[in-house]
Every structure is written in structure tokens, then in C-alpha cells.
Amino acid sequence: MKDTRLTIAVNKGRILTELLPLFEKIGIVPVEDIRTSRKLLIESKCGNIRLVIMRGSDVPVYVEQGAADLGITGKDTLLEYAGSDYYEKLDLQIARCRIMTATPSKPDINTKRMGGPLRVATKYVRTAQKYYAEKGIQVKLIKLSGAMEIAPLMNLADEIVDIVDTGNTMIANGLIVRDTICNVSSRVIVNRASMKLKLHVIQPLLDQLRSACSIDPNGSA
């Protein structure tokens, strides 16, 4: 008898919030309210799908190691993850934002040191490193986990690379967004082994998600 049970690792936060209505459209409804439940492993009413709620950076780990058959997280997370034992199958086109550079808006508070490498604060080290290398700009990358916006104001960095949605947080902290490194949206990834062994249930699910998002087979809306 073929295995029809699927485990889906889901990025908590904004992605989960925008994903739940999409899941509901295709019949994936949690047995309890994820927004109020403290559980991280939640069954669905359809019976053969369970959701695991976690930090975005953990999603590709669970999928690559086979603990989850599928995962849903942002493209920014996948760009930073060094693994490759999964397929990136679908752009859900939700939780959209951009990875951008930003600098102090007032020249008199731009404390860039003359003659040295550009100091860049970011949690997207791999993405930033590739971006500046392609531009031929010598940089010193400073990895931070959060509060990137204050790094230039505290003379820790000359500019930052961070996720931007509205840009209001940047403005409130005296920064101006500059260059777009890449556009970000939520992606569906699939464990390679699961794609072979459970193709009979994974492919229909991907087709349903694609249809629910009004995405054509080539990936455009």
C-alpha cells in the first residue's frame, strides 16, 4: 500500500498567516486554530497531512533531512541555506518583500571610513557576499541577527543588507533604501526522496497550490 501521509514544515509568522487561507482553499484545514495553539505539530482535518510550525531557517533542514516531505519558507532563507538535497518546486507568490541595501539618509551621519572596505551589516551573509563580489566591491561583512537598522547609526557599519517590505522601519531609523538585490516570496520545497516515493500525493498537492495561487505551469501569475 502506497504511503499517502505528508508532513509539511511551515515558516511561522507572516508566511504562515498568508498561507493558511491558501491551504483552506485546497482543503488543508488544521484541527485547531494555529494562531492560538501552542502546539508546533498540528494535524489537518483531511487526515493525511500534518503541519510542523518552525523558524524559517529550520525549514530547509527538516526537508533536506527527510523529517518533512515538503517545506514552505521564503526565498531569502533558501538563498542563505547551503544545502541542496531538495527541489524548489513552486513560487507561491505570498509574503513578498525585497532584499535591499540601505544607507544613512543624511550624509553627515554616514561614517564610512575612507580607504577601507565597505562595512556591511546583515544576516544575509551569503547573499550579500555574492552581490558585492559581482559588483567588484570590497566589503567587510558583519553578521547580525536583528536590529540591522541601527548599525550605521552606531558606527558599526556603513550600510546594511536587509529585508524590506514597506521601508517604513528604515525611514524611522534614518536610513534610505538603495539597491534591490533580489525579490523575495514564499517557495515550496520538496525532499528528493519524498518526491520519488510519494509523487502520487505530492504532485496533486503542488497542482492544487498552483491553481489556488492562479499560477500557470511556467510559474507566473
How does this model look, in words?
The chain has two domains: 6-95 and 185-212, D-Maltodextrin-Binding Protein, domain 2 (3-Layer(aba) Sandwich); 97-183, D-Maltodextrin-Binding Protein, domain 2. A six-stranded mixed beta sheet has the order 2-3-1-4-11-5. It has a five-stranded mixed beta sheet with strand order 8-7-9-6-10. With 221 residues, the protein is α/β, with parallel strands linked by helices. It is elongated and about 65 Å long. It is 27% helix and 30% strand.
User: How helix-rich are the residues, as a percent range?
Assistant: 25-40%
* Run of helices and strands: EHEEHEHEEEHEEHEEHH
Count, helices = 7
Number of strands: 11
What is the number of independent domains?
2
Please state roughly what percent of the residues sit in beta strands, choosing from under 5%, 5-15%, 15-25%, 25-35%, 35-45% or over 45%: 25-35%
Provide the gyration radius in Å: 20 Å
How are the strands ordered across the major sheet? Answer: 2-3-1-4-11-5
Mean pLDDT over all positions: 91
Structural class: alpha/beta
**Anisotropy-based shape:** elongated
* Fourth CATH level, the homologous superfamily of the largest domain: Periplasmic binding protein-like II
Query: Would you tell me which CATH topology of the largest domain applies?
Result: D-Maltodextrin-Binding Protein, domain 2
Q: Characterize the main sheet.
A: 6 strands, mixed
Question: Low-confidence parts lasting 5 or more residues at pLDDT below 50?
Answer: none
CATH class of the largest domain: Alpha Beta
- State the CATH architecture of the largest domain: 3-Layer(aba) Sandwich
